[in-house]
Design goal:
This protein is mostly helical and 367 residues long. The chain contains 14 helices and 8 strands. Strand 6 and strand 7 form a beta hairpin. Helix 6 crosses helix 10 (286-301). Residues 340-349 have low confidence and may be disordered.
Length: 367
């Protein structure tokens, strides 16, 4: 075990070509190690470079018994979190979101503070006075909680102060929900394959990333089930959002027939092909597709402003209004926690899910 705490040695290394670079050196098992931290263009001052190596200094001294006497800043914790946690566990879009929240909202205020000095009341007061929307503040609070959970796993703190921070999560506005009549007006304005696409996402309650991640092999036309097992996000294929999201859904017979018709006219119809493939065989960019085809159809239908998630909200609302049990709603929406849906019930059986799903198809499309 390393006996002494290592601060390391940070020097500015001159280069004949290109900008000078900061170099950090330390010893590991008696051998000298070094790493280039960044250029002076990126890190113009020594203080900038010191902040950049702080998370590496924490890592170097992880087994040192003296580490508890050396305080760590929130900024260093953020750097380690992005390097060790987010890079390995999070999708690229999530990493991008985390980086934005850290750099725009959290680091400017809390970066210089030592992790042990962050107090519940101070964070609560800061969030209360922070001049941003309730939604942004909720994201910031949740990310700070995740950050401190990581700090607990790394034995940097013994408790998570953010757990006690109270911050309203109430929505500033009610999510847009389509009535069955509005949905049918929208369908009347859509050509193929966009009509089939919208019927599928609305009648299965899918997230848009799951819709474009569907492959023909995921659909069992004989047993009338759909297996949701991947997401397509910004050109990349990922596993589903949570374990609960990866689930089999009941497929209504009429919806199955509609999808078979769509498959018959598609260039891409093998088991490994995407159900809603673009001209290249890959899923299309959802934002462009929505702006070019679905949003204009909504305008023509006179139903106002909608988004991709409007269909999932509408599905959830219909399940509730049609009398589906809370457990059935949770299973069909594939929430990890039933509190996300509404209440705690036992797992629903497949016949109940199939009946509830068919009622949604009746309301939105068939009747």
């Amino acid at each position: 075990m390393q006996a002494r705490y290592q601060y390391g040695n940070l020097t500015l290394r001159k280069r004949e070509k290109g900008p000078d670079v900061w170099q950090f050196r330390w010893r590991e098992n008696g051998k000298l190690k070094s790493v280039l931290v960044g250029t002076v263009e990126k890190l113009p001052t020594r203080a900038d470079a010191q902040r950049a190596v702080e998370h590496r200094r924490i890592e170097i001294n992880a087994q040192c018994p003296q580490r508890e006497f050396h305080s760590v800043t929130v900024g260093a914790l953020i750097d380690r979190f992005m390097e060790e946690y987010a890079r390995m566990r999070c999708r690229k879009p999530t990493q991008k979101l985390y980086r934005t929240l850290f750099e725009k909202h959290i680091r400017p205020t809390w970066g210089p503070e030592f992790v042990h000095h962050v107090k519940v009341v101070a964070v609560e007061k800061w969030l209360e006075e922070y001049p941003h929307s309730r939604q942004v503040k909720s994201h910031v609070r949740n990310l700070m909680h995740t950050l401190y959970q990581a700090a607990m796993r790394w034995e940097m703190v013994e408790r998570n102060p953010i757990s006690l921070v109270r911050q309203s999560r109430k929505r500033l506005k009610t999510p847009r929900v389509l009535t069955p009549e509005e949905f049918k007006k929208l369908l009347a304005e859509l050509s193929e394959p966009y009509r089939t696409m919208v019927i599928t996402i609305a009648c299965l309650g899918l997230r848009v990333c799951e819709l474009f991640g569907l492959q023909w092999g995921d659909i069992d036309f004989e047993n009338l089930t759909v297996k949701v097992q991947r997401s397509f996000v910004e050109g990349e294929i990922y596993p589903t959002k949570t374990e609960a999201s990866a689930s089999e859904l009941p497929l209504d017979p009429d919806l199955a027939a509609l999808l078979l018709t769509h498959r018959a006219r598609s260039e891409y119809s093998s088991s490994s092909d995407f159900v809603f493939a673009g001209v290249t065989g890959r899923p299309p960019w959802r934002g462009i597709l929505f702006a070019d085809h679905i949003k204009p159809a909504a305008v023509r239908a006179g139903i106002g402003n909608i988004g991709w998630h409007t269909f999932r909200h509408s599905y959830s609302t219909l399940l509730h209004s049609l009398g589906a049990a809370p457990a059935v709603q949770k299973e069909l929406l594939r929430h990890a926690n039933i509190q996300t849906t509404m209440n705690i019930y036992t797992q629903a059986v497949t016949p109940a899910k199939r009946e509830a799903a068919s009622k949604v198809v009746d309301a939105l499309w068939r009747m």
